[in-house]
# Entry
Amino acid sequence: MPVDPSASVALTARVHPQARIGPQVRIGEFAIVEEDVVIGAHCRIEPYVYLKRWTTLGERNEISAGTVLGTDPLDKHFTGERSYLRIGDGNIIREHYTISRGTQPESATEIGDGNYIMTSGHIAHNCRIGNNTVIASCALVAGHVNVEDQAFISGGVVIHQYSKIGRLAMIGGNSRVNLDVPPFFLYTDFNVRPNGINVVGLKRAGFTDEEMQVLKAAYRTLYRSGMKLKDALALIASDLDSEHTRHLVKFIESSERGICR
# Structure
């Protein structure tokens, strides 16, 4: 059953016979859906969207006009083998956006659930985007970037390949990220630097005042104490132990590129 009987496909759209279209999907005028594409239930595909081969959408995704999903990687090492773009449930991807498949054979770019991805940007090959993130207009995410849940990437941000963005980190507009960005904090300036905790994001995520005070103390220890990184992490682990500081310490200790300080 390639196209569910309850799906609505515009007469001018082109859907390959080997694509799989789920219940209550709506596909707009002049959209193109290639073979080996899977679209889950209740997705809305606006006019002029192009879903390329080996792209999978979960349920309730909204894809706006002019977006191209599953593009070949922008990578000179790509040799044309099969790779994937996998998108979860409940994502909004607005107009004129592009997301690439993986570079290596059988590798994937993965987008989680509930993300709000705004206009005119790009997520490159082999990225991992978590859940409930916001990626604002004109942000550019290079290959192999890992963005944890609930991060907020403002407009015009450029993120270097292999960088990691921590949970509930917020990056101010037009920043350049070329090092890992630890979770829970706010980052600003052209060459991204820490600028306090992400108060607004933490409150929206339901953090208590006590939890935020612990993270403020961890921020001061990490960025304002003048301590060596190893010593600062040890102090945070011993004196400020909590679920969130443990995540912070683990994130930093696993960093391969180093963190912005």
The mean pLDDT is 97. Residues 207-253 form one domain. The chain has four helices and 28 strands. Helices lie at 199-204, 209-223, 229-239, 243-253.
